[in-house]
TrEMBL record:
Topological relation to the membrane, as annotated: Multi-pass membrane protein
Organism annotation: Hyphomicrobium facile
Family annotation (PANTHER family): ABC TRANSPORTER PERMEASE PROTEIN MJ0413-RELATED, ALKANE SULFONATE ABC TRANSPORTER-RELATED, MEMBRANE SUBUNIT
Identification of the protein by name: NitT/TauT family transport system permease protein
One of the protein's GO biological processes: transmembrane transport
Listed PROSITE patterns: ABC_TM1 (PS50928)
């Protein structure tokens, strides 16, 4: 069947109306909820490990009446934000240099590729010894978990800038510094912003790992504490909360991307 024979909304890489997109997104969540309800009601999985959606909803109402969850939210948000901003602050200039100059790529990229395959949880003992058990070690874990991915993504976005643009700038008399600032950086900005969106999501996934380091509050710490006593409804509440935070941040990044870079395909 050709692309023109496909039904409405099912043509390859064709857009659909925003209202229909949102409706289908809601349908996706409803289907997941129905499957969850059916599995938990049929006792295929022990209710101790998979409580019903109603039990989780009741637990959610109970948890949100406590002050603890709000302090956990704030502490975890600060940890992720600090670690991620430190990562971005260093990865952006380094990634631009790697994508701009082959000698720098030869020096830095192989080492970066090597380190990014080292499991982050394996670094916990080293970070505890070097940075202690305070907030610094938690920021460092989130930094390590995102920096090496982000720097390579930034470099790839810089490499995607058409070389013809650089040649035009050189013909017009631009210096290398001006080409980096006014051509490479500005052309790669939409893709770099999208890379920041993805890495911010990864930063939140490393939160649980970061809060293994002698934490006494935070979303990840609370999940680990609940798991020791098999308080699975509370675990599911915190997991749903983490997913909701991630989805909200992702939507914010996408909206800001569309607003800042209306001319770019990545901003659509």
């Amino acid at each position: 069947m050709s692309a023109t024979d496909a039904g409405p909304g099912f043509q390859l890489r064709r857009s659909i109306p925003a209202g229909r997109y949102r409706l289908l997104a809601v349908v996706g969540f409803v289907l997941c909820l129905l499957v969850w309800g059916l599995i938990s009601a049929s006792n295929i999985v022990d209710p101790v490990f998979l409580p019903t959606p109603i039990a989780v909803a009741r637990t959610m109402v109970e948890i949100f009446s406590y002050q603890t969850i709000w302090s956990d939210l704030w502490v975890s948000f600060v940890r992720v934000t600090v670690g991620f901003l430190l990562s971005a602050a260093i990865a952006l200039p380094v990634g631009i240099l790697i994508g701009s100059f082959k000698p720098i790529e030869a020096i830095v990229q192989p080492v970066t590729e090597f380190v990014r395959y080292v499991p982050v949880p394996a670094l916990i003992p080293i970070l505890m010894v070097t940075l202690g058990i305070g907030e610094e070690s938690k920021w460092a874990l989130i930094f390590i978990g995102t920096y090496f991915q982000l720097v390579l993504m930034v470099a790839d976005e810089v490499r995607r800038v058409p070389y013809e643009l650089l040649q035009v700038a050189q013909t017009l008399g631009a210096t290398q510094g001006e080409i980096i600032r006014r051509v490479l950086w500005r052309s790669a900005m939409p893709g770099i912003f999208d890379a920041l969106r993805l890495c911010n999501g990864w930063a939140w996934t490393y939160l649980i790992v970061a809060e293994l380091v002698a934490a006494n509050e935070g979303l990840g710490f609370r999940i680990l504490k609940f798991s020791r006593f098999l308080q699975t409804p509370k675990i599911w509440v915190y997991l749903i909360l983490l997913g909701a935070i991630g989805l909200l941040l992702d939507l914010m990044f996408r909206s800001l991307n569309r607003w800042l870079f209306k001319w770019a395909e990545t901003g659509k």
